């Protein structure tokens, strides 16, 4: 018979971890448990001591592996010890083959797993003697970079001795056990540890830190046919049940039970106090009676136990909860009244969720809340009562509803409650009664440690549908009929003892668990006092509950136990569920959202489509490249740059880079050659012309010119076509420039912002530059690649260079193929799952270099030599004071120009006063300077035009009169209190600053702060303020709760004392930028000779703007103004995505984030704070927080656009809570194309018509397809497309692979090299119906291959011509690809199979098509290479 609840509970005892470790995990924000899987493979014991020892009886010694969790910081074993079955040694190896599972929130480096190998030998008495043979230590979580990764395969060395040696004081002081422990030679354990996400769904069935095998049966978990129920766990369905009519009977009576309990506690308190003291005269009273009800599976509670308050069965009022009356007595016999006080009842019912398992139990725990007096030092006054509360468990019991037959449904269940020192699920001390001479009753009490069926709990359990009739929604009339029926029924004395029950009281209050310190609230029930000198039901005043010193002194309170030791007492609504209005019940319940994660397949995974690291080509390819005559990379002295090997690691020393005397860097990228790789569906010479697009650091994006792939027939024939094709630029006349091959792009980095050099070096050390490779003829994307930039670090050298050979990759989406049947004709099949394949389109040869150059100190900008704390804005009297002068608008422009000139930035000469004697010329110069400063692009004006403008100005001012003059005076005064600050801002980066605000008045002021731009805000949260101060190292004071926020106010308010100065924290952060996309296509030919030209597109940066922050006093007048001049700076792009989607439809895509490990952040749990923002407000971008270890995705929803529009936007990923700076910025391009759905069959030609619409001008257009051998476009050449004309295109499709595929067709303007229209062909290709099947064997390495023959009979009566096609032309060739036979005659088809270098088998389809490429017959030839 399977083990029941008691058997499971008996063997599931666990040791708790150290409390210090639990607190440390909480401090590190490890609040959620993480599931893990530990696979134990085998143990090699070549030199195990006494490995072949046998017993006296000649029996061979067996072995056992024991696994336990260990905290090495506190030298404490915790959890449980898992023991493997008996193992035997074979050939010095012990096969284990066990898989263990556990979950823990103690994700600290101190948490390790200890594995001990013991030998088991039988003793004469039948028991087994265990002898340790060695042990190993497995690290689970590590933050040391030199340590091995936590996940993956591990090989652990066995150490001599016992795991008890880990408790030695010397071992505690070190993290490396190998220096103190002796390793057993040749003894090691092979294992593997990894995260197990599937364990999250069943963590409620297993406690933390428990090692368990998947073979063990866990109550509440469905059995697995594989034998491992935790590999893919499936929890059993939980069903709702109702627990009602619950009563508790304590013997000999409730009065005597509680009186004896209080007498023992009071006696114990008096024994611990000095005789005659005031504290010794005070008594302990009962505050409340509680019952904890929970569902337990032997391992843990499935949910937090519910806590309810018990009351006396016949409670007539709240003032005397245990008083009785004749009216409430359930029997008329007055002699029965003496038995009523021993019964406690539960108002209403409890809802439980159970699953049908024999080892599931409902656990009841009866506990009392006691109120004890506190000492004199805590007394407030003689009249006040200060008391402390503590808890004590009195009885508990467990009942398994599914252990026996289901006859209990609807029947009354009686369970015996237990007491005494027995293990219980709550792991608390339980009170037991003793026989005492001081007892008031001569009758003996319950035997010590047992209730002996005297203390019982009675209840009924029913499923939710069965409970409807007896639920609190039942009518009052039905309840009264039941009550009268019970009163009229005769019963014997014995029956009355069993059946007498109180009337159903109101529902008991219930709430979630609270800690003991949270009970410091006045109870809604009067305190119940029991003492031998007072009346039996004497009451005292309600008291406050405080942590009790008696809890530790007398060991009567609960032991702290995570998750199950909490108590609750929250006031709840006592109205019955059916008392509400009927209309509210008929409206229906609110639907509850289920946990759901949207799936946007296929998910883009970062790093999957990235090319492999750089490699070095063969000697022949290197010789071919160096003989091409590419320009050399030399330093400033003309010496060749030092060559670095891209296959070797690069040492990076930041201090060495900072101390480099050559602070300038000239970074060079040379695109040398391209290797074609044969691809299905395209010609062997594809591509012929290519160009590149990329972006380096914060420079604008670059689009290169068109480059020709040069091939040497002589060299290619010798090398069998494996040598790279040298790239050459194309001149205006169409010829290519072979004298200067390759393309060279240079970037000069010398003038950086303060502190930016460190970020630039970090960018080179950690980033890879993404490069897109395009076909310049068809404007189709060939693929993408990435080049590691760490080989551009000079590390003190004058110049460095490295030659990279990187793979150009693209992704292909392919669905499952389907067989064509008669029912599939004309029908669209159901959607099949798509799989993602990575295809290598070629290899790019690129050389990178970095040439050091000195930086002229005089050419450095003013911002490079400014003070360190640029984020503190202090108003200066000289720069903001009012200097007087004219009030005209011309002087306003002059002052704005002067203020702008005083702001940090490029140096600018201050303009002279406009009111001087030669004011006219100076006015002209001032206005020109202001226009230059403001960036206005206007034609040059003459003196006459300007004079006319000035002449009109007074007439424009006259109608305003005094109003204009007052407004001008206000503007002048406003400028006198304005402080300007120049701010360099990048996309997504938060710029922190503090404005020094001073109250110039002698009276206190409440200042309102208002910003005219929502991107500039005031930091009102203390935690956020402290974070930015620490991040920017701002040494200014921090004040908590400084701001006052009012609803409807223009901004936060702050209180200032007279003449007080405070720092106002401000933050500017912009997520919006320009999304202008450069036209698709290569740049035009250069105007000068040479190939070192690339087109730099406009940078997508934030817009320049001016923001004013006004600090207004109580009267609404401005006290100070801070004007921020935002200067945009480009940002770094870490990753580029190109997505293709049908036009005018939403694109929903998920990008999977890798496990985040930011080297700048030491917190390993930082990934839980990931947040995302998008630069386009019309694009929905979000991420969801999942369980620890679960992969996290970024979800995008992009609105569609017409073809061939390209939408570009940026996604910023933040890993800090306050989003100070993005950890990564992604650039995402979405190409919208016209969608065309085509259903066809492999090997057979299908036709599809497309319509091309003309634009506003006449264009010369040519159409290209992504797979020219499968798609032919008619017209195939260049044709003229008039404006607003319609041109029909005929597509001839003949695919050779079955399944769902995506192909592309582009219509290109051949003169402008611009895309006119693009189509996305969604193919659903079926497999044909086979006519015959053949099988042939071809020898491996045969050299000449093999020839075979098959016959074909013309089924027609007339002569026909047929074509032979194959889906594997590289493996099968025909003797004749076209033949003609008469009607009814037979033709022999000659087959020639190409040799193979490896064994295997492949199926080749042979198509017999007519002249229109319609398939007549299809043969399947299975070729076995052996």
Q: Tell me the structural class.
A: mainly beta
User: What do the pLDDT scores average to?
Assistant: 75
Low-confidence spans: 145-149, 315-341, 376-385, 435-453, 467-587, 714-720, 820-831, 861-868, 878-918, 934-960, 1086-1098
The end-to-end distance, rounded to whole angstroms, is: 55 Å
Number of helices: 20
Outline type: globular
Number of strands: 68
Determine the strand fraction and express it as a percent band: 35-45%
Keywords:
globular; mainly beta; 68 strands; 13% helix; 9-stranded mixed sheet; 1426 residues; 12-stranded mixed sheet; 20 helices
Ordered list of secondary-structure elements with their pairings:
Elements: H1 5-10, H2 19-27, E1 34-45, E2 62-71, E3 76-83, E4 93-104, E5 111-122, E6 128-139, E7 152-159, H3 169-172, E8 183-195, E9 212-213, E10 239-249, H4 254-272, H5 278-281, E11 285-296, E12 306-309, E13 311-312, E14 343-345, E15 349-354, E16 361-373, E17 387-399, E18 412-416, E19 456-463, H6 464-467, H7 476-488, H8 493-499, E20 510-511, E21 527-528, E22 539-540, H9 550-554, H10 582-586, E23 604-605, H11 619-626, E24 642-644, H12 654-658, E25 664-676, E26 689-694, E27 702-704, E28 707-710, H13 713-718, E29 725-729, E30 743-749, H14 756-766, E31 768-775, E32 781-788, E33 799-815, E34 818-819, E35 834-853, E36 872-873, H15 877-880, H16 889-902, H17 919-934, H18 943-957, H19 962-976, E37 978-985, E38 991-998, E39 1005-1011, E40 1016-1018, H20 1022-1032, E41 1043-1044, E42 1053-1056, E43 1061-1068, E44 1094-1096, E45 1105-1112, E46 1118-1128, E47 1135-1142, E48 1147-1153, E49 1171-1174, E50 1180-1183, E51 1192-1198, E52 1206-1214, E53 1224-1241, E54 1246-1253, E55 1259-1265, E56 1271-1274, E57 1279-1281, E58 1286-1293, E59 1299-1309, E60 1314-1327, ...
Helix pairs in contact: 16-17
């Amino acid at each position: 018979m399977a083990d029941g609840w008691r058997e499971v509970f008996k063997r599931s005892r666990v040791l708790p971890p150290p409390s210090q470790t639990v607190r440390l995990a909480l401090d590190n924000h490890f609040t959620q448990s993480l599931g893990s899987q530990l696979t134990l493979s085998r143990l090699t014991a070549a030199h195990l001591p006494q490995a072949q020892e046998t017993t006296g009886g000649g029996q061979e010694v067996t072995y056992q592996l024991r696994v336990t969790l260990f905290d090495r910081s506190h030298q404490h074993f915790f959890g449980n010890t898992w023991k493997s079955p008996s193992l035997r040694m074979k050939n010095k190896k012990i096969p284990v083959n066990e898989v263990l599972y556990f979950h823990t929130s103690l994700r600290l480096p101190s948490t390790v797993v200890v594995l001990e190998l013991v030998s088991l030998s039988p003793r004469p008495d039948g028991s087994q003697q265990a002898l340790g043979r060695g042990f190993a230590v497995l690290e689970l979580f590590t933050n040391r970079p030199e340590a091995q990764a936590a996940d993956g395969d591990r090989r652990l060395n066995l150490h001599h001795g016992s795991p008890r040696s880990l408790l030695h004081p010397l071992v505690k002081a070190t993290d490396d056990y190998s220096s103190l422990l002796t390793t057993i030679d040749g003894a090691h354990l092979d294992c593997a540890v990894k995260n197990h996400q599937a364990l999250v769904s069943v963590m409620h069935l297993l406690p933390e830190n428990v090692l368990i095998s998947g073979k063990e049966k866990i109550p509440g978990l469905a059995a697995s046919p594989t034998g491992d129920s935790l590999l893919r766990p499936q929890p059993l369905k939980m069903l709702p049940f109702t627990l009602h009519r619950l009563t508790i009977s304590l013997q000999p009576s409730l009065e005597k039970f509680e009186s004896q309990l209080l007498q023992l506690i009071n006696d114990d308190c008096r024994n611990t106090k000095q005789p005659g003291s005031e504290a010794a005269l005070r008594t302990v009273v009962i505050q409340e009676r509680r019952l904890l009800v929970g569902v337990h599976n032997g391992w843990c509670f499935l949910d937090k136990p519910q806590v309810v308050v018990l009351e006396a069965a016949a409670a007539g009022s709240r003032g005397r909860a245990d008083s009785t009356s004749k009216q409430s007595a359930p029997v008329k016999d007055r002699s029965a009244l003496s038995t009523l006080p021993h019964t406690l009842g539960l108002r209403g019912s409890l809802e439980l969720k159970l699953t049908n398992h024999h080892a599931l139990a409902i656990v009841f725990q009866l506990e009392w809340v006691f109120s004890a007096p506190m000492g004199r030092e805590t007394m407030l006054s003689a009249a006040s009562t200060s008391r402390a509360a503590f808890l004590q468990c009195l009885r508990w019991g467990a009942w398994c509803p599914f252990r026996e037959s289901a006859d209990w449904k609807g029947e009354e269940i009686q369970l015996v409650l237990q007491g005494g020192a027995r293990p219980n699920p709550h792991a608390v001390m339980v009170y037991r009664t003793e026989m005492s001479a001081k007892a008031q009753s001569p009758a003996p009490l319950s035997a010590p440690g047992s209730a002996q069926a005297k203390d019982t709990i009675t209840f009924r359990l029913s499923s939710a549908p069965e409970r409807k009739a007896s639920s609190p929604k039942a009518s009052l009339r039905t309840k009264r009929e039941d009550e009268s029926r019970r009163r009229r029924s005769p019963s014997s004395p014995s029956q009355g003892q069993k059946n007498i029950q109180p009337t159903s009281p109101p529902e008991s209050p219930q709430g979630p668990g609270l800690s003991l310190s949270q009970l410091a609230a006045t109870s809604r029930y009067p305190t119940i006092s029991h003492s031998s000198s007072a009346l039996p039901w004497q009451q005292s005043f309600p008291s406050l509950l405080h942590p009790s010193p008696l809890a530790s002194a007398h060991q009567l309170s609960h032991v702290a136990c995570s998750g199950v030791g909490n108590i609750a007492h929250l006031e709840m609504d006592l109205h019955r569920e059916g008392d509400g209005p009927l209309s509210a019940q008929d409206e229906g319940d609110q639907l509850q959202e289920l946990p759901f994660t949207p799936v946007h397949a296929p998910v883009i995974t970062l790093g999957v489509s990235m090319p492999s690291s750089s490699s070095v080509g063969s000697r022949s390819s290197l010789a071919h490249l160096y003989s091409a005559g590419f320009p050399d990379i030399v330093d400033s002295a003309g010496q060749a740059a030092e060559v670095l090997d891209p296959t070797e690691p690069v040492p990076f020393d930041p201090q060495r880079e900072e101390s480099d005397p050559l602070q300038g860097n000239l970074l060079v990228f040379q695109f040398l050659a391209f290797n074609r790789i044969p691809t299905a569906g395209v010609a062997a010479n594809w591509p012929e012309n290519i160009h590149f697009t990329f972006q380096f650091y914060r420079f604008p994006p670059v689009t290169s010119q068109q480059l020709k792939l040069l091939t040497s027939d002589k060299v290619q024939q010798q090398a069998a076509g494996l040598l790279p094709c040298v790239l050459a630029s194309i001149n205006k006349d169409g010829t290519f420039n072979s004298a200067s091959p390759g393309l060279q792009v240079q970037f000069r980095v010398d003038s950086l912002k303060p502190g930016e050099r460190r970020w630039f070096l970090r960018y080179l050390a950690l980033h890879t530059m993404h490069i897109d490779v395009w076909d310049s003829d068809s404007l189709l994307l060939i693929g993408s690649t990435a080049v590691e930039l760490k080989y551009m670090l000079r590390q003190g050298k004058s110049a460095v260079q490295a030659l990279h050979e990187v793979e150009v990759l693209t992704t292909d989406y392919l669905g499952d193929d389907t067989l064509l049947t008669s029912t599939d004709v004309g029908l669209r099949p159901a959607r099949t799952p798509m799989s993602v394949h990575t295809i290598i389109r070629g290899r790019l040869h690129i050389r990178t270099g970095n040439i050091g150059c000195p930086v002229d100190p005089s050419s450095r900008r003013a911002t490079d030599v400014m003070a360190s704390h640029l984020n503190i804005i202090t108003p200066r009297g000289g720069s903001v004071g009012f200097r007087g002068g004219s009030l005209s608008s011309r002087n306003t422009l002059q002052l704005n120009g002067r203020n702008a000139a005083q702001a940090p930035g490029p140096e600018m000469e201050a303009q002279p006063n406009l009111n001087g004697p030669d004011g006219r010329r100076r006015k002209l110069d001032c206005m020109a300077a202001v226009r230059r400063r403001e960036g206005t692009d206007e034609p040059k004006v003459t003196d006459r035009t300007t004079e006319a403008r000035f002449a009109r100005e007074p007439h424009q001012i006259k109608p305003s009169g005094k109003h204009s003059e007052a407004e001008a005076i206000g503007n002048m005064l406003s400028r006198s209190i304005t402080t300007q600050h120049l701010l360099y801002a990048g996309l997504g980066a938060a710029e922190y600053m503090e404005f020094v605000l001073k109250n110039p008045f002698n009276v206190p002021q409440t200042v309102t702060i208002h910003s005219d731009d929502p991107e500039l805000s005031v930091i009102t949260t203390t935690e956020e303020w402290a974070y930015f101060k620490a991040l920017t190292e701002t040494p200014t004071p921090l004040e908590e709760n400084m701001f006052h926020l009012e609803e409807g106010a223009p901004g936060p308010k702050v209180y200032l004392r007279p003449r007080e100065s405070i720092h106002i924290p401000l933050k500017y952060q912009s997520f919006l930028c320009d999304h202008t996309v450069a036209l698709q296509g290569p740049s035009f030919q250069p105007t000068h000779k040479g190939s070192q030209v690339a087109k730099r597109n406009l940078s997508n940066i934030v817009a320049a703007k001016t923001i004013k922050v006004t600090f207004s006093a109580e009267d609404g007048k401005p006290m100070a103004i801070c004007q921020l001049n935002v200067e945009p700076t480009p940002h770094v792009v870490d990753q580029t995505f190109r997505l293709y989607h049908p036009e005018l439809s939403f694109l929903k895509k998920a990008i999977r984030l890798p496990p985040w490990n930011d080297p700048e952040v030491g917190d390993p749990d930082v990934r839980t704070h990931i947040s995302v923002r998008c630069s386009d407000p019309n694009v929905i971008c979000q991420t969801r927080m999942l369980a620890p270890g679960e992969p996290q995705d970024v979800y995008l929803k992009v609105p569609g656009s017409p073809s061939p529009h390209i939408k570009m936007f940026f996604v910023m990923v933040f890993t800090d809570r306050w989003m100070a700076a993005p950890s990564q910025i992604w650039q995402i391009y979405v190409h919208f194309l016209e969608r065309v759905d085509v259903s066809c069959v492999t090997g057979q030609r299908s036709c599809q018509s497309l319509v091309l619409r003309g634009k506003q001008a006449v264009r010369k257009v040519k159409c290209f397809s992504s797979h020219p051998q499968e798609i032919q476009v008619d017209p195939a050449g260049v044709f003229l497309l008039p404006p607003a004309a319609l041109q029909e295109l005929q597509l001839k499709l003949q695919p050779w692979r079955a399944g769902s595929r995506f192909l592309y067709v582009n219509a290109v303007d051949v003169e402008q090299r611009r895309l006119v229209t693009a189509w996305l062909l969604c193919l659903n290709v079926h497999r044909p119906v086979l006519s015959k099947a053949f099988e042939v064997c071809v020898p491996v390495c045969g050299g000449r291959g093999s020839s075979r023959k098959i016959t074909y009979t013309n089924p027609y009566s007339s002569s026909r011509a047929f074509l032979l096609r194959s889906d594997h032309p590289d493996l099968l060739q025909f003797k004749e690809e076209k033949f003609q036979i008469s009607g009814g005659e037979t033709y022999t088809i000659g087959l020639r199979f190409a040799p193979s270098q490896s064994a295997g088998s492949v199926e080749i389809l042979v198509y017999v098509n007519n002249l229109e490429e319609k398939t007549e017959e299809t043969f399947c030839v299975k070729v076995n290479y052996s």
